[in-house]
Amino acid sequence: MEITPLIWIITIAVTIAFFVYEFFAHVRTPHEPTIAESARWSIFYISLALLFGVGIGMFSGWTFGGEYFAGYLTEKALSIDNLFVFLIVMTGFAVPKIYQQKVLMIGIVIALILRGIFIAVGATLIENFSWIFYLFGALLLVLAYRQAFSNHESNPANGRFMTFVRRHLPVSDEYNGDKLTVVKNGKRFVTPMLLTIIAIGFIDLVFAVDSIPAIYGLTDQAYIVFTANAFALMGLRQLYFLIGGLLERLVYLAQGLAVILGFIGVKLVLHALHVNELPFINGGQGVEWAPEIPIWFSLLFIGLTIAVATAASLIKTRRAPGAVTDSAPTDTTPTITQKEHS
C-alpha cells in the first residue's frame, strides 16, 4: 500500500478540520445534546468511516480494505468500552451535563494524539524488529485476561494517580462554568473540570496500550492504523449521549473484547513464529507450521464476537431489568464532595 507524504498531510489536515469544526459548531457553547442530534451525527460519522473503507478497498485492494474494516470494528468496540470508563469518571467528578461535551472533546483529542504517537513508535518497531510481534502478542494475551475479569466498578476519579494530582495541585471544590482554573482570594485553584480532563487523559494513555498493539495485529499499514483509530474516535462524543443508558446494559462487552484481544494476541504470536528471526527459536528460521490467519477470517471473527456479546448482554439485561439502569446518565450536581477532594 503506497501512501505518499501528500496523502498523509491531507489525511491529518482533514482529521484536524473535523475536530475543529466539532468544537466550534457543537462544543464551544455548553449544552446537552438531544437524542436526535446525537443520532444524526453518529450515523454521519459511522457512514463516513464505512465509505472510507470502501474507498480503500476500491483503490488499494480489498485485502487492505478488509484490514481497515477489521481494525475499525476493533477500535470502535474498544472506544465504546472507553466510554463506560468516561461515564464513571464523569459521575465521580459530578460533571454537569452541559459541560460533559467539552470534557469528552478534549479527552478524544488527547486520545488521538497519544495513539498517533503510539502508531509512529509501533510502525518503527515493526519495521526494524520482527520479534516485537512476540511482545505485542504476549501483551494482548495478558490484557485479554485482565479484560475478561474487569468489572469497571473502581472509580478512576479516586485512584492513586488522581490522589497524587490532588496532593500537588490546589483544587477548588466547586465548578466555575467550564473554566479550568479559578482565582480565589488572590490564589489560583484548578477546578474539578481540569481534574476530570487530567483523569480522562490518563485513561486514554492506558487504553492506547491495548488499542495500538491490537490493530497492528490486523494490519502492518500505519495509514490504516491511523485512519481506523481516527474514524473510531470521530463521533464518539455523540455516541456517548446516544447510548449513555445502553452502556450499562452491555454487561458482556468486556468479555467480548477479551475474546477479541486474545484472538489477535494468538494471531500475532503465530505471525511472529512465521517470520521468526530469533536465533533461539527454530535456529532463527520461520516456523513453517505456524499458520497466517487470513484477514477475512479475522474480520468475520471480530464482527461475530461483537454481535454475540451485544445480543447476549441485551438478552440478559432484559430478563433482569432491575440489575441495570435503562435511562441515560442522570444529571449531576456541579460540586465534588470533600471526601472526593481529599
Shape: globular
Whole-number radius of gyration? 21 Å
Structural class: mainly alpha
Q: Can you give the helix content as a percent range?
A: 55-70%
- Round the mean pLDDT to the nearest integer and report it: 81
Order of helices and strands: HHHHHHEEHHHHHHH
Q: How large a portion of the residues is in β-strands, by DSSP E?
A: under 5%
The separation of the N and C termini measures 53 Å
Q: Which strand order spans the largest sheet, edge to edge or round the barrel?
A: 1-2
Specify the number of helices. Answer: 13
- Unreliable spans are 323-342
Main sheet makeup: 2 strands, antiparallel
Task: Record the SSE blueprint.
Layout: H1 5-27, H2 35-60, H3 62-92, H4 97-128, H5 132-148, H6 160-168, E1 181-184, E2 187-190, H7 192-216, H8 222-233, H9 236-242, H10 244-247, H11 253-274, H12 295-319, H13 338-341
Helix pairs in contact: 1-4, 2-3, 2-9, 3-7, 3-8, 3-11, 3-12, 4-7, 4-8, 5-11, 6-7, 11-12
Structure, described:
With 342 residues, the chain is mainly alpha-helical. It has helices at residues 5-27, 35-60, 62-92, 97-128, 132-148, 160-168, 192-216, 222-233, 236-242, 244-247, 253-274, 295-319, 338-341; strands at 181-184, 187-190. A hairpin with a 2-residue loop joins strand 1 and strand 2 (187-190). The longest helix has 32 residues, at 97-128.
